[in-house]
Structure formats: C-alpha cells, structure tokens
C-alpha cells in the first residue's frame, strides 16, 4: 500500500513513522510532480489549514487531489486536514477541498484549552487516547458523513465513504489503531475498485 503524505507544512513526519511501522510504503508530496496515479491513499496532516490550503492551490496540487478523491482514493485528514476536507468552516467564507459533509469550527476549544488530551471511544476501534492541539471540532455532520467519536458532546472524528477525519492527532500517541483503521479503508478501496 502506497500512501502519499502531504508534506507542505505541519505535523507530517510523525504520521510517516506510524504508517511505515504498520507496513505502508510512504512518499512525501511536496510538489505537483510528486502527485501521480500510483497512490492507494493520502494523508493530510495537522498544521495551519490556511497555510496548507493556500499552498495546495499555489503548487497546483488541489485539483489533482480533488480528482483522486472523486475517484475514491481514501484520504485521512487530521486537525488542519479535517478543515481542508470540510464543506463548511464556521465563520469563514473560504473552504479548500470541500469534499466532506461536515461543518467544522476552527480553534474551537479557545485559548485556555489550546491543547489537551482525552480518552474516548472511536467506533469499531475502542477507547483511544486523543491529543488536541488548537483543534477544530465538527459542529455538524450532514449528508453521508457519519460521526465516529465524540468528546464532551462534540464530534471529533467522522467518516464519509473514502474520507476519514479526526480533530485530534493520533500520530502523537503510541496507539496506532486509528492509522490501522485508515489502512483498512485503503485496503478495502484497493480491492473493491474504488467507488467513492
Ligand atoms: N488551528 C489549526 C487550523 O486552524 C489546526 C491545528 C492543528 O492542525 N493542530 O488550521
């Protein structure tokens, strides 16, 4: 399984370590030439959604990535990656890839709770540790998006067909089960011929 990790800005290196540990082949995507049709899945890391979103456009990566998503290639977005995939961002006109039926609230936990950890159930996986860093939450799911985890009544993970998002950073804990969940999605999509 070959996973393309967007390495434009933010916390991509830790994802690469986890994906490799789980047996995936990892390639960094930094420019248009890196993004070809050979990938089985993609990962959009945490960081600053405004910066990553702008770079995706400027580097000519946005449109080819949108096409791959439409072909059914699985994409995992964490934190800023969640914001990049959301169809709506509260109090913000700009959206980016806008592929997932979720509304997200940026920096949703305010200053005091800029960073915190929690332990909560993740559907089909079990209780997992969750690290939040100036995180968004999902204020609304609609259409085909299904919540997978909630913390304090707020949705913090969701799935819609080939798209998976978490508001937290699973790559910053020793628990690799959310990445394994994503690689299962990748495996299934590769087998079933990718219908988004
Ligand atoms: N606050 C960041 C944003 O709005 C996301 C934080 C993160 O990815 N850890 O993009």
From TrEMBL:
Pathway involvement of the protein, from the record: Cofactor biosynthesis; pyridoxal 5'-phosphate biosynthesis
Binding site for L-glutamine: 47-49, 106, 133-134
SUPFAM superfamilies to which the protein is assigned, alphabetical: Class I glutamine amidotransferase-like
Gene Ontology cellular component annotations, sorted alphabetically: cytosol; glutaminase complex
Entry coiled-coil feature ranges: none
UniProt record, GO biological process: L-glutamine catabolic process; pyridoxal phosphate biosynthetic process; pyridoxine metabolic process
Pfam families: SNO
Subunit structure: In the presence of PdxS, forms a dodecamer of heterodimers. Only shows activity in the heterodimer.
Role played: Catalyzes the hydrolysis of glutamine to glutamate and ammonia as part of the biosynthesis of pyridoxal 5'-phosphate. The resulting ammonia molecule is channeled to the active site of PdxS.
Name of the protein: Pyridoxal 5'-phosphate synthase subunit PdxT
